[in-house]
Design brief:
This protein is of the alpha+beta class and 257 residues long. The protein has one domain: Creatinase/methionine aminopeptidase superfamily (Creatine Amidinohydrolase), CATH 3.90.230. The protein is 27% helix and 26% strand. It is built from four helices and 15 strands. The strands form four sheets. The protein has a five-stranded antiparallel sheet. Strands 1, 2, 4 and 5 form a four-stranded antiparallel sheet that branches. A three-stranded antiparallel sheet has the order 3-12-11, with no helix packed on it.
């Protein structure tokens, strides 16, 4: 999601709606796991896309990305310096490649959105650290999704951890609210000041997605109109879960089990 400037109006979900979103999240999470498990040298990003699509459809879901704003595939497959929105194709993965896989499924009118970054073995130490820290950034952000906290607490948690390891935090693309459509209010930056921004309430559902680089945070979009890459050519990693704010704490909707 691209960061906007208007004040967000956030739709709170009922318990029934959260249950529906959990069903969508499980299907998305399982498809993501199947695609990630298939990552190996020689596999093409298009093959990963076919695996993910088959998984979603077999479970009774709809691949949300296909046709969304004209996007042509089930997954986004972003390799090495590609941050997000890489289009699957004939490219075959090589040892040491870092691939981010992003996926969403629609079930009963609700969307679950999730992503993971995988390294094709063997992993270079710098790449492994980047992936590990990005995953930790997501975990830290999820812990801030509690009633009474603020949106800035989420971004601050990500930024503080990533920058403590000298990594860059992408500014131009952010997380988002989610529900009956993939992108709802509010935008959820991966940077910010603790104690600022919208106050979190029970029933909010957010797609939290740290996008972290091994170099500078600046990015650009390639000529295909989709693929976002780091301007300096550094590696990037991306993790995402759909999470609900509840009175009992954060509920991760896109865990596959």
């Amino acid at each position: 999601m691209v960061l906007g400037s208007k004040r967000p109006t956030v739709e709170l979900k009922s318990k029934a709606e959260l249950a529906a979103m959990r069903r969508a999240g499980v299907i998305a999470g399982r498809a993501l796991r199947e695609a990630a498990d298939a990552v190996k040298p020689g596999v093409s990003t298009k093959e990963l896309d076919k695996i993910a699509e088959a998984s979603i459809r077999k479970a009774g879901g709809i691949p949300t990305f296909i046709g969304y704003r004209g996007y042509p595939a089930t997954i986004c497959a972003s390799v090495n310096e590609e941050v997000v929105h890489g289009i699957p194709g004939p490219r075959k993965l090589k040892p040491g490649d870092v691939i981010g896989i992003d996926i969403a499924a629609t079930v009963d009118g609700f969307v679950g959105d999730t992503a993971v970054t995988v390294i094709v073995p063997p992993a270079a130490p710098k790449a492994q650290l980047l992936v590990d820290v990005t995953r930790q950034c997501l975990d830290a952000a999820i812990q801030k999704m509690r009633v009474g906290n603020r949106l800035g607490d989420i971004g601050f948690a990500v930024q503080q951890l990533a920058e403590s390891q000298k990594f860059g935090v992408v500014r131009d693309f952010v997380g988002h609210g989610i529900g009956r459509t993939m992108h709802e209010e509010p935008p959820v930056p991966n940077y910010g000041a603790a104690g600022t921004g919208l106050r979190l309430e029970a029933g909010m559902v957010l797609a939290i997605e740290p996008m972290i680089t091994a170099g500078d945070w600046q990015v650009k979009v390639l000529r295909d109109g989709w693929t976002v890459v780091t301007e300096d050519g550094s590696l990037a990693a991306h993790f995402e879960h759909t999470i609900a704010v509840t009175e009992d704490g954060p509920l991760v909707m896109t865990r596959p089990d």
